[in-house]
Write a structure and sequence with these properties.
Number of helices: 5
Strand content: 25-35%
Structural class: mainly beta
Number of strands: 44
Radius of gyration: 57 Å
Oligomer: single chain
Strand order of the largest sheet: 3-4-5-9-8-7-6
Distance between the termini: 177 Å
């Protein structure tokens, strides 16, 4: 029974025994994780300091702001009380305390991302390190030797070490379990990228004017200009700029010039920003020059300069007599150059004397500003008088001669002793001496200069001189009430009298003020006031058919044809010097249209070639073509037409009071003036076609009639045959 009972007891007790053994295994199996979860320190319940421990300085705290967990002691173990030596590198930190002067006493705490735990003891390499402790539930390796007490463990790929010797109130393992996590302050937000420094300035500015320069984010930089000056400093440098606007004065230039602005670091001088501005010269004053196209040797004529400001007038031949109005304009008058100011009247009349010559001479008179850049010029042909033929007495010379209808004239007579007389009141008067106005023996007061004979006796009779005034001076000639600067004081007792009524024979062709006939090099360069043109004569067969041409560059200019055409080219039309030509077109080469009648003598071909020989036919900017109209034709009724393959295209045209019509052109071809027909006519080309069409109609009608007659005869013949059969 005991056996049975004993066997039964064992059998009964076998199941509880196995259950107890299973529970023990489970407890040991799960014990370590449960301890890790429940233990303070390194595990999930690791103490995190809200602030640095009391013993830690701000400098050390700042140094330990790393991108991985940093473990530090919450208090300093005895016998340490000072700040440790702290050092960090990328992925590593070390805290080290050391007390010298006695038994070795130190404490070292390290953390190394991706570090290694040694396999052996540094004290005795024969001793292999194995897991023999834990830190906060994490397996640890403790190497306790007579000279140090080291503990190693790893958490999240960071190997931590506590090494000590001489601690009085704890040991390395206990201290390792008491380490706390130093809270890392959130990394400061990245500082915004500083705004780049900039300089703002206009792309172009006129010479001598002021410009506002804006500097942004300079941070104490220095602004430098390659030209001009800053108003505040009086130099080309402006220092200590951050966000500011400064006033800069552009330099005086006679041609385009680029000025660069640079912003440099105030201390190092490094370049940080830049800008550039183009300085352009000031617009040249609008100057004009008016003079007669043809004079005689020694003749004195009035040259009118228009515009404003200081100007210089020069003559390539002849001189400006030392007399009024020249000395009022320039006290140093008497040679070939005058310089003075044109006042508020806008014009000044000056007296020029043609050179004494026996050969034809072309005298060029130029008008320029003080910069020396010529802005207007005219050419005067000095033509000696023809010697009379002794075998042909010709008509009796008139007592006095007036100028052509295109100009007003005033006759200055010089008093001689034989001509002086006294009236009943004792006052002296002068009489006009009948003489040719273009006398070569004329003498006028002049400055005593080397090479010029001024020894003429005061008693020598002086011939009458004709002083001719161009109407194109804008005053209407000497007789106009607004005429200013009429020469006076040319000689003692030289009154200014009106011209005589005897007219000169009409010129055989139109005269263009400032241009000699058929002389391409004599081109009026006045870019503001077109030369004066006389109306085209009715007899167009007498037109000057020569071609005139000139080189006109970016500064612009004017090309005039003596037959009655003016092409004005504003500045900036041609990017480089271009050859421009004007050629009259014979009337036989022009064809009217059914509703437009072209004006005879107004056709011109305009051609332009660049420096490389390429023809220029289209323009980005317009030029102006002026055509002189025959006398008697109302300019208001005329229009400028472009003639292309006998097709006429009307151009927008305007007229003036000088019997001229003007049109703006953006292409070059053949042009002529025309008027609208009151009753349109059929074009000439349509008449042959009308004849051909009429002939065809007649032929078709005759053919139809002939066919009808043949068919009628056939019917009659058939009827007669039937009657005979019956």
């Amino acid at each position: 029974m005991r056996e049975n009972g004993r066997q039964d007891a064992l059998s009964w007790g076998g199941t509880p025994l196995r259950s107890v053994l299973c529970c023990i295994v489970l407890i040991f199996t799960l014990g370590a994780p449960l301890r890790a979860l429940a233990s303070p320190g390194i595990g999930n319940d690791l103490v995190v300091l809200a602030a640095a421990p009391a013993w830690m300085s701000a400098e050390t705290e700042s140094l330990l702001a790393l991108d991985f967990d940093v473990l530090v002691p919450a208090w300093l173990p005895a016998p340490f009380s000072d700040q440790p030596r702290a050092s960090t590198t990328s992925g590593y930190y070390e805290l080290y305390w050391l007390i010298t002067g006695g038994a070795p006493t130190f404490l070292q705490i390290t953390g190394s991302v991706g570090g290694d735990i040694p396999d052996f003891s540094w004290y005795d390499r024969n001793n292999e390190l194995t897991v023999n402790a834990d830190v906060g539930g994490v397996p640890a390796y403790r190497d306790l030797t007579p000279i140090y007490d080291n503990v190693y463990w790893e958490v999240d790929n960071v190997v931590y070490t506590v090494s000590s010797q001489g601690l009085t109130d704890t040991d390395s393992l206990a201290l390792a379990n008491a380490l706390v996590l130093l809270e890392q302050a959130p990394p400061p937000p990245p500082e915004p990228e500083p705004e780049p420094a900039t300089i703002s300035a206009l792309e172009t500015v006129t010479s001598g004017t002021t410009l506002t320069i804006t500097v942004s984010n300079g941070n104490g930089a220095t602004l430098n200009a390659s030209g001009g000056t800053f108003v505040d400093t009086g130099t080309s440098t402006y220092t200590d700029l951050d966000n500011a606007t400064v006033i800069w004065t552009a330099p005086d230039v006679v041609s385009e010039e680029s000025v660069t602005f640079s912003l440099t670091n105030g201390s190092a001088g490094d370049w940080i920003a830049g800008a550039a501005t183009i300085v352009i010269p000031p617009a040249a004053p609008s100057l004009s020059l008016s003079c007669l196209p043809e004079v005689s040797p020694g003749e004195q004529v009035v040259v009118t300069a228009g515009g404003a400001g200081s100007v210089v007038v020069e003559a390539s031949h002849g001189f400006w007599p030392e007399a009024d109005p020249n000395i009022d304009f320039d006290a140093g008058a008497g040679d070939s150059r005058l310089s003075g100011d044109i006042g508020g009247s806008g014009s000044v009349a000056l007296l020029w004397q043609a050179p004494e010559t026996t050969e034809p001479v072309s005298a060029t008179i130029t008008l320029s500003g003080m910069s020396g850049i010529t802005t207007a010029s005219c050419v005067v042909a000095v033509t000696p008088l023809e010697e009379p033929n002794p075998t042909d007495p010709g008509p009796e010379a008139p007592a006095s001669i007036s100028t052509p209808a295109t100009s007003s004239a005033a006759v200055i007579t010089a008093e001689t002793p034989s001509q002086s007389r006294s009236d009943s009141d004792g006052s002296a008067t002068s009489t006009a001496t009948p003489a040719m106005g273009n006398s070569m023996n004329q003498q006028v007061p002049r400055r005593n200069r080397p090479g010029r004979d001024t020894s003429a006796s005061a008693t020598t009779p002086r011939a009458t001189s004709t002083l001719r005034l161009p109407e194109s001076d804008g005053t209407g000639g000497a007789g106009h009430p607004s005429y200013v600067g009429a020469p006076s004081g040319v000689g003692s007792g030289s009154p200014l009298v009106a011209p005589t009524s005897a007219p000169l024979p009409p010129a055989p062709r139109p005269v263009l003020s400032g241009v000699t006939r058929s002389s391409p090099e004599n081109i009026t360069a006045d870019a503001s006031t077109p030369p004066t043109l006389t109306p085209v004569p009715a007899d167009t067969a007498s037109r000057d058919m020569d071609t005139v041409e000139a080189m006109i560059g970016p500064e612009g200019g004017m090309l005039s044809h003596p037959a009655g055409a003016v092409l004005t080219v504003p500045a900036g039309v041609f990017p480089s010097p271009s050859r421009v030509s004007l050629r009259p077109v014979p009337d036989s080469a022009l064809s009217d249209s059914h509703d437009v009648a072209l004006v005879p003598g107004t056709g011109y071909d305009i051609k332009v070639y660049a420096v490389d020989g390429q023809a220029i036919t289209r323009l980005a900017r317009a030029v102006t073509l002026g055509l002189a109209l025959p006398s008697g034709l109302d300019p208001q009724q005329a229009t400028v037409y472009s003639v292309e393959s006998n097709a006429l295209e009307a151009m927008e045209s305007v007229s003036d009071d000088e019997a001229m019509i003007h049109a703006s052109l953006t292409h070059f071809s053949r042009f002529a003036a025309g008027t609208a027909r009151e009753e349109p006519v059929l074009p000439g080309w349509i008449l042959p076609w009308l004849v051909i069409a009429g002939s065809a109609v007649v032929i078709l009608a005759a053919s139809a009639m002939a066919g009808s007659l043949q068919r009628r005869r056939a019917r009659i013949t058939r009827r007669s045959g039937h009657q005979r059969v019956r």
